[in-house]
Amino acid sequence: MESMGKKPRPRRSFTPGFKAEIVELCRRGDRSVGQIARDFDLTETAVRLWISQAEVDAGERDGLTSSEREELAALRRENRRLRQELVRFAGARWAIEECFQAAKNECGLDQHEVRRYTGWYRHITPSKPLRPARRSPRTARSSESPAAADPP
């Protein structure tokens, strides 16, 4: 089934000078807005928007002026960029925190909030004597007697 409506017209861009010229033609009052739009192959809605924006820029109507709209668009772009950067840094921070938590788990500090050396030192100093001494396999073999090392 084919669509019965018209195809949308491709989006066109117009210079500020052309828009001002169309607005001036509409303000003269010789022809209606619809007639001017048809003569220049424009949509009536676009021409009415240009007229209302010109009134805002002239101070005849409340709203954002063209320069304020441009500034707002630039600020929104900057805000979007900063948000993406913040997400990137938060992701890096998350990886660091995960690594830090794994290191604390290995040291037996998983239940302690340790951020500085002094906090770590206060915890680890009393717990050092409680840990069994770790010896390398080479040290363990050399301390055994030769007879014990070779079973009969």
Task: Describe the secondary-structure layout.
Elements lengths: L15 H13 L4 H7 L4 H15 L7 H42 L9 H11 L9 H7 L2 H4 L3
Helix pairs in contact: 1-3
Task: Describe the model.
With 152 residues, the protein is mainly alpha-helical. It contains 7 helices and no strands. It has helices spanning 16-28, 33-39, 44-58, 66-107, 117-127, 137-143, 146-149. Helix 1 (16-28) packs across helix 3. It starts with 15 loop residues before the first helix and ends with a helix. The model has no long low-confidence stretch (mean pLDDT 80).
Quick structural gist:
With 152 residues, the protein is an all-alpha fold. The protein contains seven helices and no strands.
Query: Share of helix among residues?
Result: 55-70%
Binned strand content: under 5%
**Low-confidence runs (pLDDT<50, min 5 residues)?**
none
Most strands sheet: none
Mean pLDDT: 80
Structural class estimated from helices and strands: mainly alpha
Order of helices and strands: HHHHHHH
Q: C-alpha Rg, in Å?
A: 38 Å
Q: Would you report the number of β strands?
A: 0
State the shape.
rod-shaped
Helix run count = 7
Give keywords.
mainly alpha, 7 helices, 152 residues
